[in-house]
Amino acid sequence: MVGALVLSGVLFFLTYTLTRSNLRDREGELGLSNQLIAETLASVRASLILATVITVLVGFMLGIVSSERVVRPLAGAAEAARAIADGRLDTRLEPTDDPDLNALTDSFNAMVARLQDRVERDARFASDVSHELRSPLMTLAASVEVMVSRRDELPERGQAALDLLVADVARFSGLVEDLLEISRYDAGAVRLTRDELQIGEFVRQAVLASSMPRTAISINERCTDIRIHGDRRRLARVVANLIDNARTHGGGTISVHVCPAEDSASHVWIVVEDRGEGVSTSDRERIFERFSRGAGSSKRGTSEGAGLGLALVREHVRLHAGRVWVEPRHDGTTGARFVVELPCESSRSPQSHVVTPVSS
Fold first, then answer.
1. β-pairing verdict for 267-274 and 254-260
2. What is the pLDDT of residue 331?
3. Dihedral of CA 271/277/279/283: which sign?
4. CA angle, residues 88, 93, 95, in degrees to nearest 5
5. Mean of the pLDDT values across residues 288-302?
6. How confident is residue 202, by pLDDT bands cut at 50, 70 and 90?
7. Phi–psi pair at 356, nearest 5 degrees
8. What stretch of H or E contains 23?
9. pLDDT in tens, 247-288
10. CATH architecture for residues 101-187
11. Residue 223: pLDDT over 60
12. Could you state, in order of their start, the residue ranges of all structural domains in the chain?
């Protein structure tokens, strides 16, 4: 449009100037009056202005068409890149009639195909390794059980070694199960068995089945009739993993709270708080990644866990259309506050906010 405007302006100036100069020079030869010359120049000026407007509009329309033709493939590529970033690795760009753009499309599709192949190969590797480890692990666990049954017959040093072996076998078994669960997510083979769960009673049962069954629980009175639809086993695993994480990194003092979400009437929160060192701002997202235990893990017991517990928490919660995050405690005490937000439904209107502590 700018180019059309500049070109029209130059042509307007040259045409009008030359026409006026020519008429003035041949005024006597042609016998033209000043009035006729002025009318002629006015007509020429109006014609040139109209031509300028038409040229600018045509240039504007051509600019829109050309820019859309150029930007459209780039917009498609950007949308495809966002889809791939969200995990949809089967996304591909459609071929076009432009040979230059086809070169970009072919390169992009080839890159995504290699990426998809690599991700699928890594997922298959983790799954295959986990399956292969289960058989010898079961044999080892059975052998350890036999030794445990005759523990009293072992010398003191043998009993200490057996205790270490039992702990490592249990840890190894948990790691294999976590790897299998992760591989199911990567393969898209996870299927939820949804049940209607009363949130308060469900959390009580999940805490009782965890590694710290005597953890203090507080349930907001407004959550009495709140129900969620979810997979009981996987949501119980979420609570258990958060309690295990707090036990390992939180100094042993843990509390669990169930309350309505502060910013949504259609969601409920399950909050697990500890009194550990807390989680730094830079680690608050990274600790939910696989095999990540945060920058302070070396100070907080690296002997336990392989960094898959919180990754599984995020995957389980995401399957239930929820979200999970970590933040500092709200009471000013040092520690971490893990919040699980899940969609819910209630059979009665909300009441006043009352917290009822329940010790399990």
1. antiparallel
2. 84
3. negative
4. 160
5. 59
6. very high
7. -115, 105
8. helix 2-25
9. 888 776 899 999 999 888 899 999 999 988 888 888 888 899
10. Orthogonal Bundle (1.10)
11. yes
12. 2-85, 101-187, 194-359
Distance CA 126, CA 104 (A): 33
Token pair for residue 146? 């036999």
Q: Residue 254 in contact with residue 224, Cβ under 8 Å?
A: no
CA distances from 181 to 131, 189, 306, 308, 319 (A): 11, 10, 14, 10, 13
Q: Percent of the chain at pLDDT above 90?
A: 22
CB < 8 Å & 24+ apart, contacts of 328-336: 328/278, 329/273, 329/278, 333/275, 334/275, 334/276, 334/277, 334/278, 335/250, 335/251, 335/273, 335/274, 335/275, 335/276, 335/277, 335/278, 336/246, 336/249, 336/250, 336/273, 336/274, 336/276, 336/278, 336/279
Separation in Å, CA 31 to CA 19, 25, 26, 38, 55: 16, 11, 8, 14, 35
Q: Where does 194-359 sit in CATH, by number?
A: 3.30.565.10
Q: Please give the structure tokens belonging to residue 62.
A: 């051509």
- The token pair at 244 is 């295990």
CA-based nearest residue to 178, from 311, 292, 286, 284? 311
* Contact predicate 96/73, CB 8 Å: yes
Q: Is 309 exposed, middle or buried (0-12, 13-18, 19+ CB in 10 A)?
A: buried
Show the CA angle centred on residue 190, arms to residues 189 and 195, nearest 5°.
150
**pLDDT, tens digit, 9 for 90 and up, residues 235-247:** 999 999 999 888 8
Q: 268 with 226: CB under 8 angstroms?
A: yes
Q: Tell me the two tokens of residue 21.
A: 């100069």
Contact 250, 335 (CB under 8 A): yes
User: pTM of the entire structure?
Assistant: 0.61
